[in-house]
Amino acid sequence: MKIQSQAFQLKKIIRQSAISVITGTIFLLLSVGTNVWMNHVTDEELETTTYLNQYRLGSKALTYAVQAYAVTGKQEYYDNYMKELNEDKNRDIAWAGLEKNNIKNDEWESLNQIADMSNGLVPLESEALELAKNGDTEAAKFRVFGEEYENTAQKISSTTDEAIAKIQIRVNKAKNRLRIFQIIVEILYITSFLYLIFQIIKIVKFSRKELLEPIINVSEQMILLSEGNFHTDLNMEADESEVGKMVGAIFLMKKNLIGMILEVSNILEQMGNGDYCFEMNQDYVGEFGEIRESFLKISSKMRETMVTIREVSKQIDSGSEQLACAAVDLAEGSTEQASKVSDLVNLMDEMYSSMENSANEAASTVELSSRAGQLLIAGNSKMQELKDAISEISKCSEEIGEIIGTIEAIASETNLLSLNASIEAARAGEAGKGFAIVAGQVKNLADESAHAAGETNKLIERTVAAVEKGILIADETAANMAEVMKGAKEATDKMEQTSQNLTRDVQNMNQINENIVRVAEIVDNNSATSEETAAVSEEQKAQVESMVTLVDKFNI
To answer: What is the pLDDT of residues 93-111, one digit of tens each?
Structure first.
């Protein structure tokens, strides 16, 4: 017997249930539609009956109004008749309503007969109205109470009753057919509903027996597996169903895991014993294959590492003795080096003190040079003022020369005037003798002024020459002062630079001194360390020999 999968069985049950639901829904819709149609038929029957009764009432209202008017002749009955005929129009409204309903042909024959008979009474009613209006009530009563009128009215009423009864019979038959169809549909709906309940019960049983219980067992087994318990039995059999496939997968997983765990445990035990030559025969499926690859890589790497360690151990063993000897030599050299470095520190201290004194003297020299430069700047300023004063004297000498020229011109003119006065005095004779004496004195004064002006002019020329020579000397002195100032400034700058360099050298020497002191400390420390290294090397040699012995125990 072929075992069907739970999914197939569940789909089958769900498909049958869905068919049952769809069928039940169709039957429910048919039942509702039948009920709606039955209500429609009932409403149409009631509406048709109402219209027929309305038509009958309209006819009776006309009959009553015309008969009452024929008997009494009162106007209100006439008005009622005309109101019913022209305003209320119950018969016209009822007829229009009947035309909208589903009236059969044979039923329309009866209705048309009623309408024809009603229309046949209209002439009699018109004559009765006219006679009653003219006061002939007897003739009017004969028209509406006569045998013809009464027979026709009774026939209209009976025919109307027959039409209503015929329509009711037809509608009742249709309602009975619909009621039977509705009962059948309801029975089928109940049947489909019961079948749906049966399918639901079947689904519940199937879910509990075929799905829930196996899934619970599988879930409990998976929990045990997740806790590392691989030896608990699962009381289920593997088959072709989904749950059966899960059970088979669990059995296979437990088998593989147990095999892999045992093999890995054995391999780890071998590795713990130093044996890295092993084989892995278990089937590592899926991503468990990475475990196998990792162990193989570990084995390969460890063999390579142990070979390297073995070779290195031998090399260390052979070199440890040399290291011990070198350590002893290093300790002795470090001690001697410490002594030399100590002497170097003392020498650097002396150099530092000497350079520091030189730097201080250079700073003092720079200060003196700066003061001398300032004095040269002040002398240059005074020399410039002297040059300006000599220039001003030269300008004044030139102005004095111009004034002397003016005096000489005046003396010449005065001499000429005195000559003219002497001539005029001689012409005047005795009267001009006194004037001639004055003219002679004026001439003497003019000669003396000219002589004095000439001497003054010579003196001014010598002054101007001396001033020009002084200006030349002042210019040369100023130029020399400028060169001296330039040289002094350059000397001052160089001395200042030298002072800065000496200061920087002192700082560098201080740093060198500190570094050498630090080197001396390090050398002392190295000396002590070298001695310790010598002792450690001896101990290390013994340890390396032990390590070589241990490495030889590994099987690689």
So the answer is: 888 888 887 788 888 888 8
